[in-house]
Amino acid sequence: MKExxxxxxxxxxxxxxxxxxxxKEKLDPFVKLVDEANTNKIIFLATGSSVNALNCAKYYIxxxxxxxxxxxxxxxFCNYDKVFDKESIIIAISQSGRSTSTIDAVKKARDxxxxxxxxxxxxxxxxxxxxxxNIIDINCGEEKVGYVTxxxxxxxxxxxxxxxxxxxxxxRIDKAEYETEIKKFxxxxxxxxxxxxxxxxxxxxxxxEFIKAERIKVIGYGPAYGVAMESNTKVAxxxxxxxxxxxxxxYMHGPYLELKEDHYMFFLKTKGIVEDRIAKLEEYSKxxxxxxxxxxxxxxxxxxxxLALGYSDDEDLSTLLFVIPIQILSYKMAEDKGIPLGxxxxxxxxxxxxxxx
Length: 357
What we know:
The chain is built from 15 helices and ten strands. The protein is of the alpha/beta class. The strands form two sheets. Strands 2-1-3-4-5 form a five-stranded parallel beta sheet, with helices on both faces. A five-stranded parallel beta sheet has the order 7-6-8-9-10, sandwiched between helices.
């Protein structure tokens, strides 16, 4: 089968099962860091889809490890940040291992005396791996298509399992809680194929509307804000129309004033503390635009514009399912609008801007 964004989406269940199965071996470098480092802080260095994945996993990491998670953009870390805690655990994420800004950030951390550095990557032979002995393999296999899908999901799952394994190793959680969490991961992974089917049906029901979109906004809260951020990345990369992502309250403090009747609004309604608030925002938005679409944790809906994924067991883990609609939407809208994703554009971009090796 030809490798496409969609073929990689179809691999996500298999990839996640492999990551879960191989977790002890692949995540051992992080577990050892947690055991040896005398710190309550992790500083992550990431950009693009990697930083979006971090925002999906951040709250799970903090809860399980009881450690503060800082997320810093590599270029800002290199060029503007003046101070960082050298006793903290520094983790750089680059699926390709070729991001020059992330490599430079790791160099800076090492050269300025950071004691505990790890690399998360999908390419354990890449350039970034020269800067730490602690290499964590995302374990998703090569993703030849430039628009990351299975790699994003694999990164979210890897980050959460790192937190779980680390918490169990240092005694933050007991065996019973650990085994309960593993079962929760098994359960959510098992729902990936059915979720893909639901998304495909939802897309087909709304296809004629979707392909006419010229301005998209996606709103989420909590861990789903990471999914909203990823939608910004994916839709811009593939459909190539203006798209913005917002945290729920952020949107309510100014950006709502831009809303127009032809804007497409996507609301990510996970099972969380503020889900009633996003429901109110959707109803208010419908006064201006009819193009309001909700991706919800609920099991059923009578509205064809609403996608009911039927998963409300865990808000953090739900991001593994909530990103699937964004991935499929990005791929199918591009295909149906006649955008040839297999043909690279701006082929000299990375060489001219020195953004990747």
